[in-house]
Amino acid sequence: MKKLVILFLISFLLNSLTSFAGPKVLEVIAKLKSQPNLDLIQIDEALNDFKRDSVSMKTLSEITDFPIVRVFGLNALGVIARNTSKYKESIRLHLQALKLSEEIKNQESIINSLNMLGVSYRRLDEVRLALDFHKQALSIADKISLKSESILRSTAVSLNSIGNIYLVLKQYELAEQQFTKSMEIEKKLENKLGLAINYQNIGIIKEAQNKLDEALVNYKASLDYNIQINSELGKIICENSIGQILIKQNKPGEGLRRILPTIALAEKLGDKYYITMAKINSGWALSILKDYPSAEKYLLGGLDLAIANNFNSSTSEAYTHLAYLYESKGEYPKALENLKKKQLFSEKILNEENLRYTAELIVKYDNEKKESQIALLEKENELVKYRLFENQRIMIFAGILLTLLAGLLFIWYRQYQLKNEKQVLMLEQQMMRSQMNPHFLFNSLNSIKLYIINNEKENAVYYLNKFSKLIRTILSNSREKEISLKEELETMELYVNIESIRFTEKIHYEVIIDEKINTDLIKIPSMILQPFIENAIWHGLSNKVGDKILKIFITNKVKGQISFEIVDNGIGRQKAQEIKENKVSKQKSIGLKLTKERLENFAKNINKEIVMDFEDMLDNNQQPLGTKAIIIIPIK
User: Fold this and answer.
1) What domain count does the chain have?
2) Alpha-carbon distances, residue 317 vs 128, 283, 336 (angstroms)
3) Any idea of the CA torsion for 464, 468, 470, 472, to the nearest 10 degrees?
4) Around Cβ 139, how many Cβ atoms within 10 Å?
5) Could you tell me which of 25, 19, 590, 541 has the C-alpha nearest to residue 33?
6) How do residues 617-630 score in pLDDT, each as one tens digit?
7) 83-103: per-residue pLDDT in tens?
8) CB 71 within 8 A of CB 109
9) Which of 180, 375, 534, 574 is packed most tightly, with the most Cβ within 10 A?
10) Does 565 have pLDDT greater than 80?
């Protein structure tokens, strides 16, 4: 029944505290929300009266619409858990705060959360993890050019914590360097708590070096600051440290007066580490004062706490003082037993310290290696950036140059095309004029006129139809650069028919085509055969007496080429030249020259040569039998 009443009262008190603390802290939060650009120092100052109250901090940790304050609440709960030796819970809360800080991208909160994690891991003797978290915090802080007061405070905490790690590893010089750097920042910030912690840590170094007077000065300086800020935990730590120095200076009574009251204060705070330390120190002083029953009580009480909480150093100290106690009492078997246990723990601590020291060297080497690699990577990154910038400039310059070059090449090519097109056009025009020779037109029309005068209507109509069809065909083909071989041969037949009007004996015209040749598919320049046929008629057949024969042989002897042989049975080139020399009016023929230029232009894109040649055909007596014109052009 009594237990139920007690539980009811506890529940009632907790509910009362919650209902009281909750609204009070929420009022402060409401005021903070109205302030722009809040930093951790402003939040800490506003919530200073509540940050040791787990109920109020739990209220803050559950606020969802004010993340920066929620981070503060989680870290405060982590500190409360750490101070009551709940290190795993402390780490969980600080990790939660770190995650939220990263989500809201608040660097002050990130640095603070990393430092809190480092402290908790240090309490668990997890040196490597503790050092990693503090180094991360320092690295982020170093990269911030304009450091706020909160960042500076966090930097000081990082340095102090790293100093504590070196202190555990008995690297006193390295530890003092870190504490001194931290103290310089705290002095600038006038942060009394930070100064108190650093003086305390330097006092520990001096005590370890057996510089008791210097240690005492530093401990008293730390106590003075703790009194100013009213830090109960700080007072407990300093009073125990001063008490230890007094005991070592053979002033056990003075030391006991300072240490004994701290047991109740530490129990009130729930910090088992300092309860253990205070009980062992009290038992030590009482042993020297020869109050053996009280000494044994405190030493055994401290030993039980040390073993239960894995405080190995405290366990070793308790066994040392118990061995001294039992030796003083003359209980030598017990003294020897405790000395053996002390030896076992000393060896364990020594091994652990060696392992920690080795681990620290590895960590230190790893960090230095990483820092060197980071520095090297940064330099390489700068070099890569510079090279990239240079390459970009070269690429841009090359791009501009290539663009200009491409533009110039395009202009040159276009001009070349235009020049070719102009040349082709001129050739076509010249060929057209050549084909539409005024003498040919005049003579053809005169011949038709004679048929009309002689009342040969049928011949007149027949040849007039032929003439008009030829003119129409020539005009139509002049618009095309290339026509089919079939169309070319049809045009030539019309041309030969018209030209033969003026001759008494009709020209016997024949075209012989290789069976393999498809005249519909093969493309050639229009009117390309006309100059050769005209040459055969006017220079070979016009002065010929008797049958006038004109034949065209078309073959495909070489793959990719077509061959034309225009054969007449005229007077031959030599007699034709003599007749031409004796004429009064000498006309210069340009038809063959134009044809050659047209054929060369036609073959240029195919990358094959053309052949234009003439052969005199002679009998056994070397008399002319006629002329053969040979034209070989590539097939399209």
Assistant:
1) 1
2) 25, 11, 15
3) -170
4) 16
5) 25
6) 888 888 888 999 99
7) 887 888 989 998 988 898 888
8) yes
9) 534
10) yes
Residue 345 burial (C-beta neighbours within 10 Å; 0-12, 13-18, 19+): buried
- List, as one string, the DSSP characters of 183-219: HHHHHHHT-HHHHHHHHHHHHHHHHHTT-HHHHHHHH
* Structure-block tokens of residue 525: 């320049």
Element (H, E) at 510: strand 507-513
Is 373 exposed, middle or buried (CB count within 10 Å of its CB: 0-12, 13-18, 19+)?
exposed
Mean pLDDT of 150-158: 83
Instruction: State both tokens at 209.
Output: 């070096």
Assess whether pLDDT exceeds 60 at residue 439: no
Coil/strand/helix, residue 506:
coil
537 within some domain: yes
* Residue 199 CB-half CA count within 13 A: 26
Q: Distance between CA atoms of 48 and 30, rounded to whole angstroms?
A: 16
Task: State the CATH number of the domain containing residue 531.
Answer: 3.30.565.10
Note the Cα 401 to chain centre separation in Å.
Answer: 28
Among 337, 317, 342, smallest CA distance to 327 is for 337
Write the CB contacts of 510 (distance below 8 Å, at least 6 apart in sequence): 549, 550, 551, 552
Contact 593, 550 (CB under 8 A): no
> What string of H, E and C letters represents the secondary structure of 255-295?
HHHHHHHHHHHHHHHCCHHHHHHHHHHHHHHHHHCCCHHHH
For residue 544, tell me if it sits in a domain. Answer: yes
- Please say whether the beta carbons of 352 and 312 come within 8 A: yes
pLDDT 10s digits, 396-425: 888 888 888 888 887 877 776 666 665 555
Whether 96 contacts 74, CB under 8 Å: yes
Sign of the torsion angle spanned by Cα atoms 299, 300, 301, 303? positive
Q: What percent of the chain has pLDDT over 70?
A: 83
Phi first, then psi: what are they for 594, rounded to 5°?
Answer: -65, -40
The pLDDT of residue 203: 93
19 against 384, higher pLDDT: 384
C-alpha to C-alpha distance for 124 and 134, rounded to whole angstroms: 15
Distance, in Å, from the CA atom of 284 to the CA atom of 140, rounded to the nearest integer, reads 45
pLDDT score recorded for residue 15: 43
Higher model confidence: residue 526 or residue 12?
526
Q: Which domain holds residue 478?
A: 455-580+588-634
pLDDT tier at 217, thresholds 50, 70, 90? very high
| pLDDT grade for 309, boundaries at 50, 70 and 90 | confident
**Amino acid identity, position 37:** N
Kindly indicate the confidence band of residue 216, based on its pLDDT and cuts at 50, 70 and 90: very high
Dihedral (C-alpha) 210, 211, 217, 220: value to the nearest 10 degrees? 0
Whether 22 shows a pLDDT value over 60: the answer reads no
Tell me, yes or no, whether 428 lies in a domain.
no
Q: How far apart are CA 533 and CA 592, in angstroms?
A: 11
Question: What is the model's pLDDT at position 238?
Answer: 93
* Spatial separation of the C-alpha atoms in residues 609 and 601, rounded to whole Å: 10
CA atoms of 169 and 354, how far apart (whole Å): 8
pLDDT at position 585 over 80: no
Whether 570 maps to a domain, the answer reads yes
554 SS3 class: strand
Dump pLDDT digits (tens) for 263-284.
888 888 888 888 999 999 999 9
Spatial separation of the C-alpha atoms in residues 633 and 367, rounded to whole Å: 82
Q: What tokens appear for 536 in the block?
A: 């055969």
